[in-house]
Automatic annotation (TrEMBL):
This is DUF2634 domain-containing protein. It comes from the Bacteria.
């Protein structure tokens, strides 16, 4: 109920269309951005979303003040827990999904599997993005 019921607020124009996604190209072996002639190489579309996903999975959540609390992977919290292998896998899958689905360009994470060996979290999944599907396979060092 409004103080002045005869005055109705105008609906704001909401632009729900996402801008075309751009990200700096990444050298996954060196874990560093790729530069050419003194400038970062830029990627667009699903390749850019892949770079974002890779970096988000390799960033521990809540550790660095530069990132929001929504960014990063919480799999590190499994270190030292006396969980069964099944529970570790279930939690690992949940952490991967939560990490990736914060990005509005990623609409779903499918076929997710994780495994732990020698402090390495191995991830395999399919990202469903606004640009199409991307297979993501990689290792994250979390010392579980």
């Amino acid at each position: 109920m409004s103080l002045f019921p005869i005055i109705q607020p105008q609906a704001a124009d909401v632009d729900t269309e996402l801008p075309f996604y751009r990200e700096v190209a990444w050298d996954y072996e060196k874990n560093a951005p790729i530069w050419k002639n003194g400038n970062p190489v830029m990627l667009e579309g699903k390749e850019a979303v892949y770079v974002w996903a890779w970096n988000a999975l390799h960033t521990p959540r809540f550790r660095y003040e530069i990132y929001t609390w929504a960014y990063g992977n919480e799999a590190e919290s499994l270190i030292g827990q006396n969980y069964s292998d099944e529970l570790k896998q279930a939690e690992g899958i949940r952490y991967v999904r939560e990490c990736l689905l914060i990005n509005p360009y990623i609409t779903d994470v499918q076929n997710t599997s994780v495994s732990f060996a020698d402090g390495i979290l191995t991830i395999a999944c399919t990202l469903v993005t606004v640009y199409g599907e991307i297979d993501l396979n990689g290792d994250v060092n979390i010392n579980v």
